[in-house]
Amino acid sequence: MRGATRREMFGFAGVGLAALLVAREGYAADAPPGDFPFKRTDAQWRKMLSPAAYGVLRHQDTEAPFSSPLLKEHRAGLFACAGCGQPEFESKTKFDSGTGWPSFWQPIKGAVATTTDSSLGFDRTEVHCSRCGGHLGHVFNDGPQPTGLRYCMNGVALRFEPGHA
Fold first, then answer.
1. What predicted TM-score, i.e. pTM, was given to this entire model?
2. CATH number 2.170.150.20 given to 6-162
3. Which of 81, 129, 132, 152 is catalytic?
């Protein structure tokens, strides 16, 4: 019997952390402040998004690991923001990180912005849509080459558009 790899151990830890975060509904602040080109009132966001997508995109919730159908999405296409429709990632940059969330090694140029997230008592790099400010996930320095980055995204914050890439 083999021992767990480093990535599997991080994945297991991530599952536990996500369960804790999901249980702590509303743990974080709203979408990052900023003057984003795509604007909606809170009532408009609530009306246009599912409750899960609203929680993630507008209040930085985290979806349960291994719950997103996008984990098994392997067709050519684009992954766009579920809030405003801006393309965020090309399918050719998607990889299986084993963490339970859709992962990519590079966003489309200019599609995402980052901020520092200290909500868990330590700094992480939050990734949000550069068009609407919606929370997408976080980026980590343990991804594959050529970038060495892992953009760990909430599937509910994205929608898949087949055949575009």
1. 0.80
2. yes
3. 152
